[in-house]
Model the fold of this input.
Amino acid sequence: MKSFFIIALELDPKYAGAWYNLGIVGGGSVGGLQYSSKDCYMKALELDPKYAKAWCSLGSLGGGTVGGLPYSTKDCYMKALELEPKYKGG
Done:
């Protein structure tokens, strides 16, 4: 399954959903560069800052930097809830 996400990203590196899904399966190598799950979620959010699931997943990994701004675990979860008030994670 991981290979499908990598192929999708080789074809379209701006596909936020594929970055998110690659993060779910543990990350991988795209374009010769290695991406961790956290890196994948941050890439997804750079492309689509309204991606609530990616915010929640980034929060579960301790937060990260999106758009040049640092986000803590709490910030990420708050952002996810702000975007989807009924969001329960997963």
Observations:
- The first helix runs from residue 2 to 11.
- The chain has a mean pLDDT of 95.
- The helical segments are 2-11, 16-24, 37-47, 52-60, 73-83.
- The chain has one domain: 2-83.
